[in-house]
């Protein structure tokens, strides 16, 4: 009887396998047919009519997935939740040269994320209608590197009230930002950088309590900074650089206690530095360069820089700042980059203090009216290399001769038989090293100034360092 049991067991096994295989061929949990057709049609509009999704990807949410398409189950059916178009990855679907946005795109009713990367090359404007159809679910909308996207940003994008991320980066959009963006109060990231947007920045940020990143850089925004910026209490990064923003920095910026990056470079902001900036103790990057903010003589000295002890990057170049370099900067132990170049700074350079900064890797003080002697060590110059610049300070001199001498050598004094001799530090050192050498080994030209005790002075040109000049009273 054992062989009968074996046969029965084999038959039952085969029967079970057939049933399982049959269920798998049916797709298990199938994709909604209307959803599948809408997906094929939408993609075809971007990659070209020759693309046949039903043949290439008969189960786009299952065993034949499409790169850039993600799905999720709703009930017992699959629906598209994420759609990325463009060559984000090597096997992504490339966009065609003459693409169209088909209305089927907006029938993907469970879509949460939609990204267009380097798709729109030929000029095209986005239609205003249909975007509202995605308002019930869409949380992320991105247009990245699409130079062909021109015209204004559709007003209807403001109806996507569940958006948490809106990235409109490096496209050809222009005109004013639609006022409807003020409705997107759930945003955590708002990036409109690298376009041609004009007009003023909307003053409606009082409702953006969850916003972490605001990047409006590289546009043509004008006018003053809206006071409602201070209402974004969760903000981590604020980048408004490379625009045409004017006026003074609002004191409300000091309320942003979580801010780590403040980049306002290359605008027309004036009125000097504001003291409230030291209240943002979380700052790691403070970039204000290229703004005509210099006004008072104590532009820098009036700021308690030691309070910003988290700073890593401080760029205050090309601002017309006056006064001295504050020694309080030496308290910024995490500082790696310090840019003070092309201002009207005067006084001595706190060399010894700045050299104690353990992380400092770049220092630019060129293009000022600094005076006196640089007291940096040779080791400091070697550490900085080309990342140290001090040139174009007419009354500043340099003791240590580094690999790239940028300043005139400082004059040193020595006394011989009641005679005070002033000459360069480097030549003085050479003279001491060679005082016992033969005169034939010395070459060069040097100008020394001899100052007599009775007040007379004159310059002597020595054609050979070995020439001994004896002066009597």
Automatic annotation (TrEMBL):
Gene3D superfamilies reported in the protein's UniProt record: Ribonuclease Inhibitor (3.80.10.10)
Cellular compartments annotated: Cell membrane; Membrane
GO biological process: response to fungus
InterPro entries named among the record's database cross-references: Leu-rich_rpt, LRR_dom_sf
Keyword Glycoprotein: yes
Primary location recorded for the protein, binned into one broad class: membrane
Keywords: Cell membrane, Glycoprotein, Leucine-rich repeat, Membrane, Receptor, Repeat, Signal, Transmembrane, Transmembrane helix
Membrane topology: Single-pass type I membrane protein
Signal peptide: 1-22
GO cellular component, one term: plasma membrane
PANTHER family per the UniProt record, alphabetical: LEUCINE-RICH REPEAT RECEPTOR-LIKE PROTEIN KINASE FAMILY PROTEIN-RELATED (PTHR27000), LEUCINE-RICH REPEAT-CONTAINING N-TERMINAL PLANT-TYPE DOMAIN-CONTAINING PROTEIN (PTHR27000:SF774)
Protein's recorded name: Leucine-rich repeat-containing N-terminal plant-type domain-containing protein
